[in-house]
Write a structure and sequence with these properties.
Helices cover about 80% and strands about 0% of the residues. It is mostly helical. It has one domain (about 25-155). The longest helix has about 40 residues, at about 5-40. The two termini are about 35 Å apart.
Amino acid sequence: MAALPFLLNLIYLNAHARRARRQLAAELPEFVSLLAAEVGADTTLSEAIVRLSRGPGVCAAWFRRVLSLKGIGGLFTEGNIEGALREEARRSGDSDLIGLATSLDGVKRRGTGTRELLSQIATSTASRYIGEAQMRAEKVGSEIILPMIFFFFFEMIR
């Protein structure tokens, strides 16, 4: 009985974390598209990240947090020193963030074609999100069949 408040708290926290992850996944494609547009307007990648991190949402908040840790100078990997983006993405365990941070490191290192590369990253991130959303939607359909059958037959029995 003493474990009940602990379990309820754990369930609440897991639901909150799951909701935040889904919101991040939903916002990430648009964030990367805006990043590509900023860079296309002759803004540096670092400055574009700073500007977009001022916006609303979970994605902007994550970038704000990363910037607060090491500032604009420590965002990207240089030599053997891992950049704050990759470090925090790895720490989060989110595969989309890890992929984005790795891609942004590559874009920064390459130096040319940044807008095109960011557009490709945005497209692939959006495609991945749409695929995951479709899988969740299909899963919900199969999960609610038994409760629907139960309530249908329950009404028939009464």
